Amino acid sequence: MRYLVISDIHANLEAFEAVMAAAAPLGWDHVLVLGDLVGYGADPNAVIDRVRDLAPHAVIRGNHDKVGSGIESADGFNAVARSAIHWTLDALTDANRAWLAALPAGPVLVNELIEICHGTPFDEDAYVFDDLDALRALHASKRQLCLFGHTHVQVGYSIANSQFAVETVSDARPLEVALDGHARYLINPGSVGQPRDGDPRAGFALVDTDRRRVTIHRIPYPVARAQARILEMGLPEILAERLGVGR
Ligand code: ZN
After folding, report:
1. How far apart are CA 43 and CA 48, in angstroms?
2. Which of 3, 35, 48, 93 could form a disulfide with 207 if both were Cys (CB 3.0 to 4.6 A apart)?
3. 74: CA distance to ligand 1 center in Å?
4. What's the CA-to-centroid distance between 44 and ligand 1, angstroms?
């Protein structure tokens, strides 16, 4: 079985469409969505409509989905994120707002191999920023492969016999991570709609459970169009600018 893994789309329709177009010829059977469908970007309704059309095998909520659907306050957000999420809450149709509000929290156990979460398996809102965070998340995971989002950075970690390793030291894309039977893995497919590692290209991953491998991809998309949409909607200009630098 092949799973297409997407996270942190953030209402960036241009990036989302480019990822779906790039993933189609690679082949996949099911889609997993790791949260933050909305927030920051200009097309929350179109993105939710497309995700619903895909009938994903599993979708979990992110922190922006909670605030964007009105089930949590924007207290923890900075001024720019708050302004964008209030715009989102207003822009969503009643049906999409209700659908977003009903998304389950992670972690979700997908099958015998895979678990998904937005931040970490022990706290949906916690960030994996460093090796120690990754170790805590690896130990909290109930499956050999834990997929996460939230940081908008493509990264993979593993642990086997107390040996911790970073699996994504190479910048080459696509990058293949072979799943060793003795190790546990924690992998972030990167952000579709707002990458933050200095590379503006959209990220996604494919998991092949039969061949026991994860492939991490990065693809270009029409950034200028996504930026124009953000300005057109009157969202903060910095949200358009950051897409151009991948931060
Ligand atoms: Zn996010």
Report:
1. 9
2. 3
3. 14
4. 13
- Give the distance (Å) from ligand 1 centre to CA of residue 143: 23
Beta strand 2-6 with 30-33: parallel, antiparallel or unpaired? Answer: parallel
Give the tens place of pLDDT for each residue, 68-113.
Answer: 999 999 999 999 999 999 999 999 999 999 999 999 999 999 999 9
C-alpha 126, offset from chain centre: 14
Report the chain's terminal Cα–Cα distance, integer Å.
Answer: 33
Distance 78 CA to ligand 1 centre (A): 13
Mean pLDDT of 58-63: 98
Q: Please state whether beta strands 2-6 and 202-208 pair in parallel, antiparallel, or not at all (unpaired).
A: antiparallel
Q: Is 162 left (phi over 0), alpha (psi -120 to 50) or beta?
A: left
Cβ distance 189 to 170 under 8 Å? Answer: no
Please give the class, per CATH, of domain 2-243. alpha beta
Ligand 1 center to residue 70 CA distance, Å?
16
Please tell me the distance between residue 98's alpha carbon and the centre of ligand 1 in angstroms: 20
Q: Compute the Cα dihedral for 88, 219, 111, 128 and give only its sign.
A: negative
